[in-house]
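Sequence decides. Our protein:
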Amino acid sequence: MFPLTDFPTLQGRTYLNTAAESIPPRQVGEALTEYWQDKTQGMAGRDPHFAKVEACREIAAKLVGLQPAEVAFCSCSSEAYNLLASALRLTAQDEVVVTDLDFPAGATPWLVGDRPPKTQLWCARDGQLLLDDLLPLLNERTRLVQVSLVSFLNGWRIDWVPLRDLVRRYAPEAILSVDVTQALGRVDVTGVDADILISSTHKWTLGIHGGCVVGVPEHAAAKLTTQAGGWYHITNAFDADRFDTAKIRKGAASFSVGMPSFAPIYALNAALRYLDGFGIQNIAAYADPLVAQAHEGLKGLGIQPMAPAQPTCSSGILAFQHPDSAKIAEALLAANIHVMHHAGRIRIALHGYNAEAHVIALLSTMRQHL
């Protein structure tokens, strides 16, 4: 799918670890060089810096299905979630729903503070989140339902529309928040009409560290305005009344509290435009069959993936647990096959720069060492 000439470091190796770290294309490197050249102009470089922010806002908005004014950037998903917590101002009388398939960044901000809300844990069964298990957790006190569209842990992808409809019906006061870090760039997220959407930038988007996309649609802007200090998100930062009151921009803009991290934004702009050139739906149509092939191949080796197959709701991640996981991971690395190994779990991730030969190499090497 992606020309390997754009990824010179992938020549001769099988890289199946995009869910942890992507390999950026050469166009991202060129964008970072452009940033450096602009930065060396001193104050004169700020004009192209801020122009790049707006260009990146435009392409990011297109890929998440929002308007540019509904998208902003901060430094990482952890920062975004802590800023979200400041906007919600939850109390001990409020309830928050999180899942046991979520990454800690979206699950832990609700556990801290002097009067943290009550956390309700939506637990997966057999690797999947079932709406029947969510329903008893929803009520009039539910202020937030936080999910990951695709789980970092096992690749389970939520069927969005039924989830959205259930939450809207049984917890009408709840903010519906979705982490798309393991989806954006690999899965079409334009139909995910959540109240807030958050994504890191160094995984499937092919960007680098230090960035985060935050999307807040206009209808949720008033409710999701952060209560953080700073200057970039404040309309009167340098006005005469700045020591009397802080007038914070509404919605997504309130999540950019300080000077933008320009280098990650240059990188993200190039990366998202690279992905958009192929089309996210085309990337999924190319890579989803590779995931399905790997899933069936693992089952043929007697290994049950942690999440069931989802023919119509696929993701780029496949994971399994095995008592000899360390031996398997060592053998794969010796064969120049790169996967994630942690706590008895091996995670495989397939993107547009992967091919059927990589799946065959993975399964063949595992067969030799099981």
In short: Residues 4-19+279-369 form a domain with the Aspartate Aminotransferase, domain 1 fold (CATH 3.90.1150.10). The longest strand covers residues 142-148. The chain has a mean pLDDT of 97.
